[in-house]
Amino acid sequence: MALNKVNLFRIDGTLGAVSNIQTSALNGGPLAGLRNRIINGDMRIDQRAAVVTTHNAYTVDRWHLAFATTGAMQCAQSSDAPASFSASLLFDVTTADTSIAAGEYGVLAQYIEGLNVSDFAWGTASAQTATLSFWVKSTTTGTYCVSFRNSGNNRSYVATYSVVSANTWEYKTITVPGDTSGTWLGTNAVGISIIFSFATGSTFQTTAGSWQAGNFLGTSAQTNLLASTANEIRITGVQLEPGTVATPFERRSFGQELALCQRYFYKPSVSYIEQSYGGGVGAGTSTQIYFPTQMRATPTITAAWSSGVNAVASTISALGSIGASATISSFSGGDYAAVITWTSFAAEL
Amino acid sequence: MYQLTTSTSIIRLTDNACIPPDPANRDYRDYLEWVAAGNEPEPAPVPPASVELTPTEKLAASGLTVEELKTLLGLE
């Protein structure tokens, strides 16, 4: 008898195949290639290589710290990681806030570009279920929250997870039903924000496990990690994928991951000597730098001029999202030169 | 906190970053919110006036003597 239809099929354990397997999807998503919509989920890429302590500051690539609290914290890449990972993102409390006021919070977040999650179809009747998975290690056991939020900050889904054992790497998975309401952008603006909360004031608290209209980061059960300077938490292996099952962390090459990050931040730290021989007063010359990948938007540029000789009126401008140009001109006629160091280009969400 | 430039870009004075007038740029949106809150950027800096050198100053800047210049131009 031929088996031509299977309505329910479940295998617990390892499935092997000695011949071809044909399927239209894996876990409801793509068979291969960018299953994970989180960029730098394993925290390997750290172009800034900085310890950040300020609100809205970017730490390892694509991840930023945000807070409103009387406490203080620092975030940086850490080499403490679970097996098969080489890095994590550390959130370390440096000044305690033992009583979280209504409007206070402390989070780590990644804003995913809408172009990378438009197939989730959130905000439509065809909204797909998605699954978030990650590793976490905290000094403090208890309940923690993750929020999924739209760009307008008026649609939120808060999920909870428990840190069971202190100072131990634990693997967590959270499945989120697609939101059939609200506006979810599929453009180069914010598509979905993934927000790990470590302290949440009542203003940002809601009920876990359902979509809410508003800007919510956690629940009343959220552990206050800011309660002591002895507290710290690390996360890594963050993956957001379509479907109801958390598949193993998608491994991408370092070069691939770096290129994905450079769409949002590029730190060349290279210097160019710009010079010209002869020319009258006001004669000008320019040099250009082109980005390794097209950036998400026209970037903010940081650069520095030095060693100027008879050079004046240096101007720096972006060439859209593909490069930048720096121009100098002669102050008094004759030879002129200057050195420009391109420090960074930022087009974060 | 911000300064205008002679172009359309804005300078963020805390780190001298050059911010393009792109609505998709988060730094530019932050700038617009800052202005909307009633703040005013500093005006664009006036570039120093260029100086036209006299012939004598140009000769001095070249490092040549009059005799060397004559030799170079074949006037001897």
Please state the structural category of chain A. mainly beta
Proportion in helices of chain B: 25-40%
Largest sheet of chain B: 3 strands, antiparallel
Please state the average pLDDT score of chain A: 91
Number of helices of chain B: 3
Fold-level CATH name of the largest domain in chain A = Jelly Rolls
Query: How much is the average pLDDT of chain B?
Result: 86
Q: Oligomer, anyone?
A: heterodimer
Low-confidence spans of chain B: none
Short descriptors:
heterodimer; A: 349 residues; mainly beta; Jelly Rolls; Immunoglobulin-like; 2 domains; seven-stranded antiparallel sheet; five-stranded antiparallel sheet; 1 helix; 19 strands; 41% strand; globular; B: 76 residues; alpha+beta; three-stranded antiparallel sheet; 3 helices; 36% helix; 12% strand
Give a short overview:
The complex is a heterodimer of chains A (349) and B (76). With 349 residues, chain A is mainly β.
Model description:
The complex is a heterodimer of chains A (349) and B (76). Chain A has 349 residues and is mainly beta. Chain A folds into two domains: 57-262, Jelly Rolls (Sandwich); 265-346, Sandwich (Immunoglobulin-like). Helices cover 3% and strands 41% of the residues of chain A. Chain A has one helix at 254-262, and strands at residues 57-58, 64-68, 72-78, 88-95, 105-113, 130-138, 142-149, 155-163, 170-176, 190-200, 211-213, 232-242, 265-266, 270-276, 284-290, 300-309, 311-319, 323-330, 336-346. In chain A, strand 17 and strand 18 form a beta hairpin. Chain A is globular. In chain A, 42% of the residues are buried. The model of chain B has no long low-confidence stretch (mean pLDDT 86). Chain B starts with a strand and ends with a helix. Chain B has three helices and three strands; from the N terminus they run βββααα. Chain B has helices at 26-36, 55-62, 66-73, and strands at residues 2-4, 10-12, 17-19. Chain B is rod-shaped and about 70 Å long. In chain B, strands 1-2-3 form a three-stranded antiparallel sheet, with helices on one face. Chain B is α+β, with helices and mostly antiparallel strands and 76 residues long. The A-B interface holds A 188-189, 281-282, 296-304, 312-313, 315-318, 330-334, 346-349 and B 5-7, 9, 12, 15-20, 22, 24-28, 47-48, 50-53, 58, 61-62.
